């Protein structure tokens, strides 16, 4: 019986590999070539950054800091970051890079019993797609509405405004703007122009054609961003991942230059250590990590699968995780400096301006 291992070297000669093994390796090589790779490291980094950095960083994180003790919230946040966020982030990325498979087949290749994890993550992704595409449609509606000399949400002179509409920045100090009936033109534009909220669930209302067209446009844009795989996605992210940072820098510079900005920043950072005794604070920190790091969605596995096999994904993951959390921290300064200005202009406490970011 021949106990020699195929592909090994014996007495100076190489033992031929088993034909089945050669065929399997050839199939895996062809599959990798068909999937393709990122053209360079920057495309991968920008793609992941564009995936994980969004509204969860710009608005939700600062709000959770305010809600859960200001600077004290960083303690549970950092604990969950180093014990859950970074390890799972690295696990999913390395799994995709090692197997060169997507969010479902990567788990199947690792262990057929784990295939259900991949399917569960895809169910979550489908539900999130319906949620985020609506937000994009709203954003497009606001974008198109802003192409006017006077912003439609800046005054109470439009057909959708009610008699209760009050322009707070122009309100006289003697005017009682704290009544329950007073509403801002921003809120009325949102509720009565964008959404056109009906009186109740029993009144369906008419189809919002403008929003429907914005929704269609959002789907079309998403399609053309991914229709050629990494070839198209790798080019789109040069804009989609960098432009938000440019806007964040502009917002930060403008925000900290406004009167009342320092009060807003102090409100954002002031630590209330007694809040650490509340279990809800720790729950919010954990959910924020999983939410903002796009963990358990399969997208990190899919994006990592286009890396080269010997890519240093550990270094990439560490850099991306710190970039994500750093963006959240800096965004807090931009948001709360503006909230401090708004509170000073309206003559109300910052706590009344900083409404729920969830």
Which features does this protein show?
358 residues; mainly alpha; two-stranded antiparallel sheet; globular; transmembrane; sodium; gamma-aminobutyric acid:sodium:chloride symporter activity; disulfide bond
Could you walk me through the main structural features you see in this protein, from its secondary elements to its overall organization?
The chain has 358 residues and is mostly helical. 63% of the residues lie in helices and 1% in strands. The chain has helices spanning 19-35, 41-52, 55-67, 74-99, 105-110, 115-145, 185-194, 209-226, 230-240, 243-256, 261-269, 279-292, 299-304, 313-346, 350-353, and strands spanning 9-10, 13-14. A two-stranded antiparallel sheet has the order 1-2. A hairpin with a 2-residue loop joins β1 and β2 (13-14). It is globular. The mean pLDDT is 84.
* Major beta sheet summary: 2 strands, antiparallel
End-to-end separation: 69 Å
Reading the helices and strands in chain order gives: EEHHHHHHHHHHHHHHH
In which range does the helix fraction lie?
55-70%
Keywords: Disulfide bond, Membrane, Metal-binding, Sodium, Symport, Transmembrane, Transmembrane helix, Transport
GO molecular function: gamma-aminobutyric acid:sodium:chloride symporter activity; metal ion binding
Transmembrane segments: 74-95, 116-144, 209-230, 242-269, 289-306, 318-343
Disulfide bonds: 156-165
């Amino acid at each position: 019986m021949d106990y020699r291992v195929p592909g090994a070297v014996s007495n100076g000669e190489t033992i031929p590999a088993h034909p089945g093994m050669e065929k399997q390796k050839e199939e895996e090589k062809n599959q990798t070539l068909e999937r393709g790779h990122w053209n360079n490291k920057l495309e991968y980094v920008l793609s992941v950054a564009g995936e994980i950095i969004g509204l969860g960083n710009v608005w939700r994180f600062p709000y959770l800091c305010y809600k859960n003790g200001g600077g004290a919230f960083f303690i549970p946040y950092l604990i969950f970051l180093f014990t859950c966020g970074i390890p799972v982030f690295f696990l999913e990325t390395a799994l995709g890079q090692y197997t060169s498979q997507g969010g479902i087949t990567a788990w199947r290749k690792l262990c057929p019993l784990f295939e259900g994890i991949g399917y569960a993550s895809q169910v979550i992704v489908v539900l999130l797609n319906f949620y985020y595409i609506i937000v994009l449609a709203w954003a497009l509606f606001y974008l198109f509405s802003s192409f006017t000399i006077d912003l439609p949400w800046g005054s109470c002179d439009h057909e959708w405004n009610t008699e209760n509409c009050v322009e707070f920045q122009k309100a006289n100090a003697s005017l009682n703007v704290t009544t329950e009936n007073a509403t801002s033109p921003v809120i009325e534009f949102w509720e009565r122009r964008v959404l056109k909220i009906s009186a109740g669930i029993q009144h369906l209302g008419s189809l919002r054609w403008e929003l429907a067209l914005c929704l269609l446009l959002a789907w079309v844009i998403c399609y053309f961003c991914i229709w050629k795989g990494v070839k198209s996605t790798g080019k789109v992210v040069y804009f989609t991942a960098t432009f938000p940072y440019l806007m964040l820098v502009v917002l930060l510079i403008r925000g900290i230059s406004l009167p009342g900005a320092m009060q807003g920043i102090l409100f954002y950072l002031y630590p209330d250590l007694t809040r650490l005794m509340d279990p809800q604070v720790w729950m919010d920190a954990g959910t924020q990590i999983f939410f903002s790091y796009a963990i358990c969605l399969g997208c990190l596995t899919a994006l990592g699968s286009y890396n080269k096999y010997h890519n240093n994904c550990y270094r990439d993951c560490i850099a991306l995780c710190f970039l994500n959390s750093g963006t959240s921290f800096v965004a807090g300064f931009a948001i709360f400096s503006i909230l401090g200005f708004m509170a000073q202009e309206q003559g109300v406490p910052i706590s009344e301006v900083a409404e729920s970011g969830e």
